[in-house]
S9 family peptidase
Amino acid sequence: MDDAAAVGSSEAPLDDSADPYRWLEEEGSPRTRSWLRLQQGLLERHARHHEERTWGHILKEIDAAAVGRELSPRTEIGDSIFSHQLTADGGELIAVSEPDGRSRVLLDTGDHAAHGRVARWLPDAAGNSVALQLHLDGHENGGLHIVPAAHGREAWYVPDASPHPAVVFVGELLLYSSGSRTEHELRVRRLPGGTPRTVALPVPGPVRLSLHTGPGGHLLLRTRAPASPAARWWCTRWDGSGTPDWQELPLAGLPVTAFAVGPNDMYIGGNGLLGLDLVSVSRGCPVRLLPLVPLGPLVPPPSEGGSEGTIRALRVLDSGSADAAPSLAVLRQLGTTRRLDVQRVIAAHGAVPDEPESDAVASGERGFGEPGSGAVASDAVATADEGNGEPAASGFTWHARLRIGPTARRADGGPGDGAWVLVDDPRFGAVSHRVTVGAPCVPRARRSVLRAAAATSGDGATVPLTICDPPFVSAGQAAPTLITVYGGFGVSLEPSWDPIVAAWLAAGGRIAWVHARGGGELGPRWARAGRGPGKSGTVDDLCAAARYLQSGGEAGPGQLAALSASNGGMVVAAAMVRASHLFAATVCVAPLTDMARYHIGGLGNLWHAEYGDPADRDALRALLGYSPYHRVRDGTPYPATLFVTGGNDARVRPWHAWKLCAALQEATSSDAPVLLDHHEDGGHDGRSGSAARALNARFLALLAGRTGLRAPSTGNRSANR
């Protein structure tokens, strides 16, 4: 078709002749609504009802075995433990367990008429109440529920909290962000149920802000203005009266990848591990960042290039003595694996160039690590090279997703000696484990055998893969293979448990995670390499991984399928359009597809740093070079493809998928279907409960049917036992 061919011309002007399906952007128009009804009918005609029912039964068994599975790390306060769990109907609950063994459910999303998802939850420092945000029917709405942990107290609602809010408790104060998702005001209420008032910020609005606090009462604020990509950091101690005396922290230009707030100090991961004295900052005294080193050798030792990995999370743990060096739980990403260590740290002796004595030192102000902080001053201890008899660092390496919760709090509000981690495994699910000072032993959890592999991309870049073989299938033995990718925004793609992954492995299929450029697996450079014009290289990375799996015999002819969402859905769509012969089937959930107009609607106008500005001619040329919608070619045999969208998606508008779906349906020379599953009440994060299970069954029926994977008999739940 002539106009479909024009879609694929990177030199075509951006008018209606180059964009024949722009009318689908009018989501509520009669023409668009009529087209959506036709797509629903097409979906029903091509539905594999028998296979969907079979996979649905398998997923129901998997879900039943997963009831009670924890969805995020626990929070420990005194003798109480707060948890976030999966329910029998696919919903979520927040519960608190008391020392006597009794457990109380504070929130169950199944109690709401609308499908709900817990977007954020945070207990206060005393464990008296929990602030949480609930997203309903795919809406990323605002508002906060304040739920008491004790019986007999009334919950109350904060209607003016922003979506995905910044929120902290400071004594009897609740501080939170108000406004839209990206433009915030800072507000405060006195608990319980006080009248809101706006708190003055140290910079003019609009800004995007985040809030953090620690056991010493210091309040940290991070602000980011729309016109400036750099964040600014501020600190104060505030009791809720008057205007906070914000003091700026000397973090400008520092690539902060993680941080933690102790009683008196801040610990920063970025260029190594750094410390900052917050007591002096809050008094307005000059301070400097001090490099920190562990007491004892780093385990594991630095890699061949001297890298100790990217610090992804930090927690300050109580070492048991006011005079002892602080203990930090340090979570590092070492390539495609994660390493958690609990180590005592000191300021590096002589690592900071000599400077004139500051007014703070001359006046006797406290320096980083002086008594009362739990840290050790650099001029009062030997360097780490001298050993001091400290044991080697204690920790463990994990092959899949690993998350760490907040530092445990003692009953008096001080930091405890541990934190809860949640370790994931693609076959066996998630397991909670408490790490403590001196005993962060390996969790007692079964592990899948994951293999590391590498493909060579078109420009010679080495692209890592993580591969999980099904039971009784060895490396190099062909099996239906499901490949997934993300490749954007510095987000690391980590192997993890999911009902689809569990079902695919149980059926005898293989899973491959592609750590493409743009992700955070190999650090900031790897992330930068997949931004702007480099995003086309991200697409090449996925194609190279697919070729590697096929040429190495891991996936036979017609045995490779791809599934991903959001930015990953865009990468899958672009790879499918670029090299359609590589894939037997693809599923793209909430993808961008028209990269010349990604900034129109949703949150696209925030993503110029990731994709480039379409108003810039060179950036537009790069975008059109891989834009899935613009690369469709008439007469190409495209694989079976399913697009999934939601009417309440506030990040990526559904018309992106609709336009590519229409273009592929018109252009393909294959009899493989190109389908759309649109749900008006769906959002960017997918569906909940029974609707999620039905959609997963549809995914599996399409992907398995096209790759030759047979569903296992019901009763075989080896994938998640």
Q: What stands out?
A: The radius of gyration is 26 Å. DSSP finds 13 helices and 35 strands in the chain. Residues 689-707 form the longest helix (19 residues).
